[in-house]
Amino acid sequence: MFEQVKEILARQLRVSPDRVTIDAQIKRDLGADSVDILQLLMRLEDDYGIVIPDQELAKFETVGDVVNFLDGLK
To answer: Which of 17, 23, 27, 74 has the most CB atoms lying inside 10 A of its own CB?
Structure first.
């Protein structure tokens, strides 16, 4: 799951995949803003056929938070 999220984030945020680590802060380390976060949400929902509640989205601070959420849906 990490590799899939890493690929999505690197492409969407136009950063080197090397910068996308499990502990990377999405906003601080990868430079995402609120629009980027919303685009990530929509992309994950489309790719995985899920709905991510707003209260869960607010918890996505690190790449690992996103991966853990998606792993929890299995």
So the answer is: 27
